[in-house]
Amino acid sequence: MKITLAIVISLLIIVGAGRALLTLPAVQDAVIERGTALLAKRGAEPFPESESLRVYVCGSASPLGTGQAQACIAVITPEHFFLIDSGAGSTDNINRLGLPADRLQGLLLTHFHSDHIAEIYEINLASWVQGRPTPLTVYGPYGVAEVTNAINGAYRQDRRYRTGHHGEELLPPALGVLAHKSILPGVILQDGDLTITAYVAEHPPIHPAVGYRFDYRGRSVVISGDSNVTDKTLAIVEGADLLLHDALSLPTLTALTEALNAEGQSRQSKIVSDVIDYHASTDALIELGQQSNVDMVAFYHLVPVPPTSLFEDVFLRGAPDNFLVAEDLMWFELPIESDDIIVHRP
């Protein structure tokens, strides 16, 4: 007992001494020098090369819940980099993942709810600062021109300030202005080995809303945005390797609605109950998996965001082994000339 007490006292003294040392300017400067050197070294590391189709979860949350960024998925090949949606908090995750923002080619919007468009300018700014060589094009259904023009107008002064401060050579003004392209269902882009196809999503009363399928050298991924499961969903996932689909936990949402009502929070209860009718339930997605030959299904845009592993288990209740719950910073590797899907967890 005396030995244990002596060890504890010694540790407390050491910890106290360490804290005292950190108040000394010379020690602080040494720590800052070391930390900034490591940060700069990490930033100088090139993005790892790979022949695979890679898919990154930059935002897995819906507006119901906290702790994760809102909807954003990155799709990267050796020649391409596209984002699907740009929810709040997603740009920070793009930076944390070390994704090559300087070669971002396009942002594909599924629809114009705030949790899918909140950081359009943030990723535009981040990729402009990192040296993106062409204007960032925002693709989306009818209405995308209104969204991008409004953002360009709102941040006109910001762009002027930054170019004025850093110079036109570093931040060419034209590259800070968003471009846009309205799309219709069908193939919207073919570039080398990559084909991107848009399909109609069901998210009433939001219209139009779309999802996207990426096909690259025999590998494929479908990203739903927000949608119920429909015949168009079933058709677009045919033969796909990976489906990332918005997912709603009906048991959790039902319990939350009833709990809010019981506490007299009828306004909040109404909003939560309204959400149920325009997102895919986990049961509907499990049925989709049974009816299709998609190899893996990942739930994202989680309604609500599961705060604990118990709530994650509720999302996966009744799901087969090829289903999982996505989380921020998770990514998927789909090697070419293979059926493998390698899941990398944060």
From TrEMBL:
UniProt xrefs under InterPro entries: AtsA-like_MBL-fold (IPR044094), Metallo-B-lactamas (IPR001279), RibonucZ/Hydroxyglut_hydro (IPR036866)
Pfam families according to UniProt: Lactamase_B_2
Top-rank lineage group of the source organism: Bacteria
UniProt keyword list: Hydrolase
Residue ranges annotated for the Metallo-beta-lactamase domain, each copy included: 69-279
PANTHER family assigned to the protein according to its UniProt record, in alphabetical order: ZINC PHOSPHODIESTERASE ELAC PROTEIN 1
Protein name: MBL fold metallo-hydrolase
